[in-house]
Specification:
Elements: E1 10-15, E2 20-23, E3 26-28, H1 35-46, E4 50-55, E5 66-70, H2 74-82, E6 90-93, E7 100-102, E8 121-123, H3 127-134, E9 139-146, H4 150-160, E10 165-170, E11 182-189, E12 192-201, H5 202-216
The protein binds ligand PMT.
Ligand PMT binds at residues 32-36, 74, 93-97, 99, 124, 126-128, 142-145, 157, 169, 171, 177-179.
């Protein structure tokens, strides 16, 4: 049994990819399976936390002891997360949120007509950035999925989105990133690298990440 280092803490985890609808039968999404976020939620519950898991559509069972809040689009996820901000002590954003969504959701199935079709996309709100602006005592952990210049891009996201920690994820590395059961990450705070975790199970990455976060959280008054 794990130690109860998150006893009494309210933990909000986001997981999976969002889906951005084009018409009644089509949508845009990404390769996130939800495994990383679900592993974090499950391990946090084992460490004694009260866990809310805000998740895009996945094929995974709800982890033991977690409350699932299913969402589809980035806008849904934003609403689910921001409405629970004040009731969270630790927020971990492992979800792969779509940066853009179709400008309009066509009410009817788009008909095949011309030889080319242009889809107009508009920017989604950055949920993590909004949390960074609104947060009070909450401890906020972001993720950064990168295919190049991992450290530089991760540190830039940490600053811009005002996170306490950021988990740099080189998704082009063998055994790391989307879909598989393993991951390898580099965890940063404002001062630079905190810890590098070589390829290991997403469950083990989740445990170590939660230990690092728990040790840095303010004790409850
Ligand atoms: O789900 P798996 O298959 O297990 O894969 C795990 C993972 C690769 C998805 C995960 O480890 C990971 O890296 N998640 C972050 C993916 C991502 O979208 O990264 P990003 O660099 O685009 O976004 C940076 C951070 O901002 C993330 O915490 C993201 O949740 C957040 N964000 C991004 C865009 C947006 N509109 N709102 C956000 O909150």
């Amino acid at each position: 049994a794990g130690s109860a280092i998150l006893q009494g803490k309210r933990v909000l985890v986001t997981a999976g990819g969002t889906i951005e609808r084009i018409d009644p039968v089509r949508y845009i999404t990404n390769d996130s399976s939800g495994k990383m976020g679900y592993a974090i939620a499950e391990e946090a519950a084992r460490m004694g936390a009260q866990v809310t898991l805000v998740s895009g559509p996945t094929a995974l069972p709800v982890p033991k002891g977690c409350q699932l809040v299913p969402v589809k689009s980035a806008l849904d996820m934003r609403e689910a997360v921001l409405s629970r901000l004040d009731a969270s002590d630790l927020i971990i954003k492992a979800a792969a949120v779509a940066d853009y969504r179709p400008a309009v959701i066509e009410p009817q199935k788009i008909k095949k007509k011309s030889d080319s079709l242009t889809l107009e996309l508009v920017k989604n709100p950055d949920i993590l950035q909004e949390i960074g602006t609104l947060k009070k005592e909450q401890f906020v952990v972001g993720f950064a999925a990168e295919t190049e210049k991992l450290d530089e891009h991760a540190l830039d996201k940490l600053q811009r989105k005002n996170c306490d920690l950021i988990v740099g994820n080189d998704v082009s590395q063998e055994g790391a990133g989307f879909s598989g059961d393993t991951n390898a990450v580099r965890i940063f705070d404002r001062n630079g690298l905190v810890e590098a975790l070589p390829v290991q199970s997403k469950q083990a990455v989740a445990r170590r990440l939660l230990e690092i976060a728990a040790a840095r959280m303010k004790p409850k008054r």
